[in-house]
Amino acid sequence: MLHEDGSWARAEQAGHAPPVVTQAGPRRLWDLLDQVRDIWLREGQLPLHGALARIHPDGTISLRRGRWSATIDR
User: Fold this and answer.
1) Cβ neighbours of residue 4 under 8 Å, at least 6 residues apart?
2) Predicted structure pTM score
3) Which residues pair with 8 in a beta bridge?
4) CA 29, 31, 33, 35: dihedral to nearest 10 degrees?
């Protein structure tokens, strides 16, 4: 995975062993993905489904559902 801020993550897996994850940059992309995956497995749907969306005058979008939240910068 890559992000424009320079963050990146890579996972390698062999057989049934847990993946070996390498990541760097200001964000830990694999950790963020794993948090969303955990919500999906516990609740049976992604947190974005049914989220309240607010679009701010500067174009930033705020999403919230329960304790989960995310911001999409313009």
Assistant:
1) none
2) 0.63
3) 2, 24
4) -150
Nearest to 68 by CA among 42, 44, 41, 35: 35
What's the CA gap between 69 and 1, in Å, rounded? 21
Contact 30, 23 (CB under 8 A): yes
Cα–Cα distance between 10 and 40 in angstroms, integer? Answer: 21
Q: Tally the residues of the chain.
A: 74
Per-residue pLDDT of the chain (74 residues; tens, 9 = 90+): 999 999 999 999 999 999 999 999 999 999 989 988 898 899 888 878 889 999 999 999 999 988 889 999 87
